[in-house]
Amino acid sequence: MNVSSDKIGLNDNQEIDILNLKTREELIGPLRKKEGIYQAYHMNKSKWVSVNLNEMKSVDSIKELIDESYELTS
């Protein structure tokens, strides 16, 4: 989805593409230390993260997060 970058805590108002993904609560902290992963936009912040697709360097890392999110929500 396209959102203003300030919605995920960045200091500007550029429009960016994000993907909201559910993850295990114990992984939220470590994931948010990685480049491109932020506090969830308009979701439960203890279970969801927002991935800035413009900052992600590896498609494989996004695939892993999508797979986990799918398993947690299905």
From TrEMBL:
It comes from Pisciglobus halotolerans. This is YjbR protein. It comes from the Bacteria. InterPro entries: YjbR, YjbR-like_sf, YjbR/MT2646/Rv2570-like.
